[in-house]
Write a structure and sequence with these properties.
heterodimer, A: 135 residues, mainly alpha, 3 helical TM bundles of succinate and fumarate reductases, 2 domains, two-stranded antiparallel sheet, 4 strands, 63% helix, 9% strand, flat, B: 246 residues, alpha+beta, Ubiquitin-like (UB roll), Fumarate Reductase Iron-sulfur Protein, Chain B, domain 2, 5-stranded mixed beta sheet, two-stranded antiparallel ribbon, 32% helix, elongated
């Protein structure tokens, strides 16, 4: 924390201010910032996807998806961020979701495991559909 | 055999003399493995420097007054053992994110106002006369809110919250956890009185789920959980027709 002098009405107090690098001080803060940052490359990749859909809508002549090495690397990085974002999101679902079955609270571990199970099923279904249409 | 000693660095700030806080180092005996940081501060005050100021009361993790930052982490100093830091030095600074009044004492007025704003008491639409008997609860109903009722208002969660540190208008972890404690209480009927505060722009939606508040909480309250669950509940009240509107 960096500091800055300040004064209150009754007693003179010193009001510390957070330094810009506060998130580098603790591992937990750093991982939080990484988690938040993962949304940015995902947003960029989705913007590109929207643009590709727009071009595809104008006919096959306008659709030429990029296949450069740089784009493949960018996509792999986006995939890694997407996986990390999904992992943190689904892990936290056990904290957020709370409901009872037969008047007993469902354990958060069970909620998290079911979330990951659904994620796996959804990934398989979407993968199958994409591969099926690709053929 | 040489006496075992430990170095304690404590923040000193005299508002009448100092323009900014500074650290002062004390070399004191570490005579007992059960010594906690609060014992070290009490030793300094009793034997080395009587002008050192800090808050404390119960020495057993109940009153919540001895919260300070120990080697960068908000802790109850009565529960922070010196043996966990020795032979290294222990640096004790005031709770982060609060104005410093003197030495290790911070101004808690902002928190007290926030706590009051969420009406942390049981609200009834119509009070029953005392003769009508008690409001009965089952153990399952108590279990619904028990965890959130463990808060001792020590404010470690505020000191660990970067959202509060960056914007002190944020209602904050403990106040929201305590509002959830009362909203989940089967005897309470005051959720509609608390919602305007909880759902305001400085309320639950300001939290971005850093989660450090729950890490530092000495009583296992898990304020981050309380906040996220309140977000979900308020959303369900809004989107589900006739749902949970009581």
């Amino acid at each position: 924390m960096s500091s800055e002098a300040g004064a209150s009405t009754a007693t003179r107090t010193y009001r510390p201010k957070m330094a810009a690098g506060w998130w580098t001080k603790k591992r937990h803060y750093f991982l939080y910032m990484v988690r938040e940052f993962t949304a940015l490359p995902l947003a960029l990749w989705l913007l590109w996807l929207l643009y590709e859909i727009y071009r595809a809508g104008r006919g096959p002549a306008h659709f030429y998806p990029p296949s450069s090495t740089a784009f493949v690397i960018f996509s792999v990085i986006c995939l890694a961020f997407a996986l990390y974002h999904s992992f943190t999101f689904l892990s936290l679902a056990g904290v957020i979701l709370h409901f009872k079955v037969l008047d007993k609270p469902v354990p958060s571990r069970l909620i998290v495991m079911s979330q990951f199970g659904l994620w796996l099923v959804a990934s398989i279904v979407i993968g199958a559909v994409l591969i099926g249409f690709g053929r | 055999m040489a006496e075992k000693r430990i170095t304690v660095r404590a923040t000193r700030y005299d508002p009448t003399k100092d323009s900014a806080p500074r650290l002062q180092s004390y070399d004191i005996p570490f005579s007992d493995e059960s010594m906690v940081v609060l014992d070290a501060l009490n030793y300094i005050k009793a034997h080395v420097d009587g002008s050192l100021s800090y808050r404390w009361s119960c020495r057993m993790g109940i009153c919540g007054s001895c919260g300070m930052t120990v080697n960068g982490t908000p802790k109850l100093t009565c529960a922070a053992f010196l043996r966990d830091y020795w032979p290294g030095a222990v640096t004790v600074t005031p709770l982060n994110n609060f104005p410093i009044v003197r030495d290790l004492v911070v101004d808690i007025e902002d928190f007290m106002q926030k706590l009051k704003s969420i009406k942390p008491w049981i609200i009834r639409k119509q009070e029953m006369p005392l003769g009508a008997g008690e409001h009965r609860q089952t153990t399952d109903q108590i279990d619904d809110f028990r965890q959130f009722s463990q808060c001792i208002n020590c404010m470690l969660c505020y000191a660990a919250c970067p959202v509060y540190g960056l914007d002190d208008k944020f209602l904050g972890p403990a106040a929201i956890a305590l509002s959830r404690r009362y909203n989940l209480d089967s005897r309470d009927q005051g959720i509609k009185e608390r919602l305007p505060v909880l759902a305001s722009s400085d309320g639950i939606w300001e939290c971005s789920f850093v989660g450090e508040c729950s890490v530092v909480c000495p009583k296992g309250v898990d304020p981050a959980k309380a906040i996220q669950q309140t977000k979900l509940d308020t959303t369900m009240r809004f989107v589900v027709p006739f749902g949970n509107r009581e």
